[in-house]
Structures are given as C-alpha cells and as structure tokens.
C-alpha cells in the first residue's frame, strides 16, 4: 500500500506582502523536509519541502518526475495542489500555461510523457487523449467544448466501479505541443472572480486529465489504460476572510463544501475506522474517489504564503496536508476492460485444456 505523498511549497513573499510590511513566519529546518511556523515553532514534516529559493524545475524533478513512470505501468496518477488563494497553486501546476516563464508541473509532465512515448514507439502503440474540467458551484463545466459556457455543463455517472462523464470532450493528442495548446485554450475559459483576497482569484477547481492507452505491438490484445489527473484546487481560505459578499459569498460556501468534504474523506481514510467513506457528499470527492484511498498514486502539493499576515491560513493548510500524508492508497494496474475479459477467457481456456490433457 502506498501512502499519499505530500510536498510543501512555500512561495517567496510577493510584492504586495513586502509593501505592506509582512515578514516571513515559516522557517525551513535543516536536513529534514520539515518546517516550523509562528512564534510557537509548531513543526511539520512532509515527504518534500520546497522553500522560496527553489524553482519550478526542482519541484518537478524531485517530487513529480519519478511518478510519471507509473502511468506506463498502468497505474493512475493524481496530483492535487491545495492552499489558500494566492499561495501559488496555479503557478506550481502551470494550469495557466501560456508558453512563457518557468514551466509548471503540467507542461513538464506533458513533455516527459511524450518523451517516454517517443522512446518506446518501436514496440508499443500509444493513444493519448486529454480533457479539462472546471468544478464551480457544484457544477462541472467542460472547458474544451465549443459550446457556450452555460451549455457546457456535464455530469458524472458511476460506471464499472469508476466515474464516467458522458458528453465530456476528450481530444486526441499526437504530441506535447498539441496537448499544451489545448491546455492553454481551455484555461482561458476558466471563471475568474475578483475578491478582496486576490484580484484574480480562482474560486473553482480545475482538473486537467491525460488518458493514456498502451498497446503492445507484438501482443495487441495486451492493452493497459491509465489516467493522470492534475488538479488545481480552489482556494482553501474560509470565505469570511475573502471579504466576499453576495454571489461571491455563495461561491465561497460551495467551494468550502468540496474542500470540507475532501477534508472529511481524508479524516475517514486516515483513522481506518470507517467502513463507509462519504465520497458522495460533494462532486469534488466523487470525481477524485479513485484518487484518494483508491486506485491511484497520489501527490498533494500544499502551497503556502510565508507572510505572517497569512499565518492562520498557512497553519490550516499544514494541518490539512499533514492528515493527507496518512492516507494509504491501493494502486492496481488498469487493464482495458475488453483485454481484461480476453485474459480471463484465455486463462479459463488454458485451465480447461489442462483438465482435458490430464483426463
Ligand atoms: P493561487 O493559484 O494559489 O491562487 P497563484 O499561483 O496565482 O496562486 O500565485 C499568486 C502569485 O504569486 C502569482 O503572481 C504568482 O506568480 C506568484 N507565485 C506563486 N508561487 C510562486 C513561486 N514559487 N515563485 C514566484 N512567484 C510565485
Ligand atoms: Mg489559482
């Protein structure tokens, strides 16, 4: 059983924090992936800690790169960015990809995936599709459809022990540039709500998914399929601090619902006492059901601001991430349903043949 891995990323103080006289209240401890926060020096340990001096390349190379190979072995992979608005989730994930600046996790992962595909083309056939969803006020929006936004709502259904989303646009991609052009196009359709907390705050969860089908050329019936979810979660702050009112307040409550249920699910998974996990209580947790406590290798990247002004929210993120670390997942290889059935029949056939021989 694999635990959910957790990386903490502390971003640098941003200009507005420096201008308003904020000081850093988070200190990285030497030798261990550990930080202490505030005057009481509460300390937390994670699988990785990245401080303000560590850039996009280092975060990717240490925490993410070695997970990519799992996809080619047929495991699902999920990376979640968690943290308050303005803590660096979108920057870290690279969800707002526009081809400029230091690349985030999604574009780097896309390049690595296609490098691996290129290196194995001789004996393997690959099929790659991508989809891009936004979960906003408990509605799922397809970010890759040509339809106007109000007609782009899709919904989930339970199928074969998994979630399926009928009508969701899944685009075939041939190379990394294809996939990144789609990411760029899709992210420009995300809602952006201005709140007192951050002028361009994301009040929604964005889920970019890469589906990979892998067929062995010498044995074409040997097919595995894997799913890579890259999730830029909504801001984890409590709505009262955003200064949000009216419509924005409603958003705040619903966003908290998804993250609150996610928090409950994490608690239930951690204490091991629950035979029933409340995945169904929010769309976010239904969507991520396979990724938490299920069939996935999972990394949570917890993002925090180092500013003393944000200490309370940062402590809450550290606590949340600390609990997530204790979840155990049970990843198993995904065979394509058709090829799984064929394998089963072959095995049965072989058993019957052996029986005949032994008679
Ligand atoms: P979130 O998505 O969590 O709301 P953003 O990713 O939009 O936060 O980050 C907020 C601001 O901080 C952006 O201007 C972003 O460029 C900057 N930022 C975040 N993390 C880093 C980092 N590690 N290094 C430099 N700038 C960062
Ligand atoms: Mg964001």
From TrEMBL:
Source domain of life: Eukaryota
Cell compartments where the protein resides: Cytoplasm, Cytoskeleton
Residues annotated for ATP binding in this entry: 83-90
Domain Kinesin motor: start-end pairs: 3-327
Family statement drawn from the similarity comment of this UniProt entry: Belongs to the TRAFAC class myosin-kinesin ATPase superfamily. Kinesin family.
Stated name of the protein: Kinesin motor domain-containing protein
Provenance organism: Apolygus lucorum
Residues of the full protein shown: 1 to 359 of 1098
